[in-house]
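User: Can you help me understand a structure? I only have the sequence.
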Amino acid sequence: MKRLLVACWILVLAGCATSSSSNINYYLLDSGTSAVTGGKQVTEPRPLVLLGEVELSELLRQSSLLVQLEDHQMHYALQHVWAEPLSEAIPRALLKDMRQRSNDFNFERGTTEWFGKEKYRLKIQIDQFYPNAQQQVVLSGRYWLTTSEGGETLARDFSLTGTLTQDGYGHAVVKMRRLVGLLSESLLRTL
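Assistant: Let's start by predicting it. Here is the structure, written out as tokens:
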């Protein structure tokens, strides 16, 4: 009985040692600190742009940050995870950026509340969104802009990169956030 008790205590202590050495770091794509205050008031109605589905590649549909080590080798950083799903974080950051950069349109998520009121509907597919071993961050995919009048659709591929100047996942996330800002600028030029 004494041996069983000692063995249990050893397992408990080993479990405590393992859990304390495995710190998990959480990252937000958008910290929320760059909000614009005191923007100009617009009294006339503006055309509405609905941001619909932002579809992520299978690689990006999990919580761990991802690094491309070689052309055909990816690494999931199990100790470095997103604090919220990218499927929510990316659209929120895009809407924030487009609202800050344009007074010509209103931007909303594509929910039933807004359907039928929009001038444009935007759909985005993201294939790559991660740092790589060449000291770059990459954001690439395709977007579709559809007009409500006539249903004409414009489709464009995008591929954006940024250079990493420091080591660490925190720096990579900051650079990834900047790429989302560049994508919002590209989208606004299309409108």
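Now, to help you interpret it: Residues 50-190 form a domain with the Rossmann fold fold (CATH 3.40.50.10610). The two ends are 75 Å apart (CA to CA). Let me know which part you'd like to focus on.
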